């Protein structure tokens, strides 16, 4: 594999179109076996472990589509940072290897978990549910890049699930400095117990895990939480959830805050008996008066800058 890549690179020339991708792939093919050997026999699912690392490190591009942009009314510093962020997201910076390896080890423990998990419409084990619902390398890199370029220090996550996206956020916040904080909200008691134990064990004092539905928790947080500069929405997936949670969170969102909404085109019949109208919900959020700039990252995520 590596020899074929190097031969293709040499035929194309070091500066030919696509050469950087070939070179990047060749580098990964050298790195990943070394990373697996370094991790040792304690890794139970080596293929999944390597795939996690690959998605944290590989060259990746996302198309950025502008949905809304007002040329006046927003803070110029925030707008400049947001413009720089969009440029970075289109090529998606890699995650530091040590961070990627730490989080890949956490994911490996979940791949090994045979515990039962069930909801109103789905039944299986934790391993299967974790693989369907958790944030891995590409999404984690988006979260990390947002925090890095927007210089976020106070973050709010709606929908903690198993805590993987929160770990990406917390690792990025740790790189920003000491005075940072993440608050997460999870409505499943099972997931809340799993995630809160994990997050507290690794980032005690920098993370606060709240249990309950967002419609109940957000009004309470509005009176107690310092305004946040980044919110990640990965909770209920429907038009009603997107719009309702955004409206409830507005008092918590500082001027110049950014909001990332996951799964803006989601419609999974395993979990939704009718069309949840996620896209309609996302577009309603993007049209809000406080939204000065709204873009779509690929087909799955919506990102807005608030005035």
Automatic annotation (TrEMBL):
GO biological process: methylation
Pfam families associated with the record: Methyltransf_24 (PF13578)
Record-linked InterPro entries: SAM-dependent_MTases_sf (IPR029063)
UniProt keyword list: Methyltransferase, Transferase
Record-level Gene Ontology MF annotations: O-methyltransferase activity
Annotated protein name in UniProt: Class I SAM-dependent methyltransferase
């Amino acid at each position: 594999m590596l020899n074929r890549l190097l031969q293709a690179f040499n035929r194309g020339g070091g500066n030919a179109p696509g050469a950087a991708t070939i070179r990047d792939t060749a580098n990964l093919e050298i790195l990943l076996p070394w990373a697996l050997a370094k991790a040792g026999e304690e890794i139970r699912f080596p293929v999944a472990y390597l795939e996690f690392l690959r998605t944290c490190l590989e060259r990746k591009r996302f198309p950025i589509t502008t949905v809304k942009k007002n040329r006046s009314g927003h803070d110029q510093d925030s707008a400049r940072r947001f413009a720089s962020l969009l440029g970075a997201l289109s090529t998606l910076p890699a995650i530091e290897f040590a961070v990627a390896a730490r989080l890949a080890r956490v994911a490996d423990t979940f791949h090994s978990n045979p515990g039962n998990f069930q909801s109103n419409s789905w039944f299986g084990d934790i391993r299967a549910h974790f693989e369907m619902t958790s944030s891995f390398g590409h999404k984690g890199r988006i979260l990390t890049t947002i925090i890095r370029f927007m210089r976020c220090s106070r973050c709010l996550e709606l929908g903690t699930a198993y805590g993987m996206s929160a770990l990406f956020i917390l690792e990025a916040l740790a790189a920003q400095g000491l005075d940072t904080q993440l608050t997460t909200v999870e409505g499943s008691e099972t997931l809340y117990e799993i995630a809160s134990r994990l997050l507290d064990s690794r980032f005690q004092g920098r993370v606060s895990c709240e249990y309950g539905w967002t419609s109940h928790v957000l009004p309470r947080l509005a009176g107690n939480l310092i305004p946040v500069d980044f919110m990640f929405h990965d909770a209920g997936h429907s038009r009603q959830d997107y719009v309702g949670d955004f409206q409830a969170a507005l008092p918590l969102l500082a001027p110049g805050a950014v909001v990332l909404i996951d799964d803006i085109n989601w419609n999974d019949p395993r979990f939704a008996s009718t069309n949840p109208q996620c896209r309609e919900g996302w577009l309603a959020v993007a049209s809000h008066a406080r939204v000065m700039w709204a873009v779509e990252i690929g087909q799955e995520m919506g990102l807005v800058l608030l005035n």
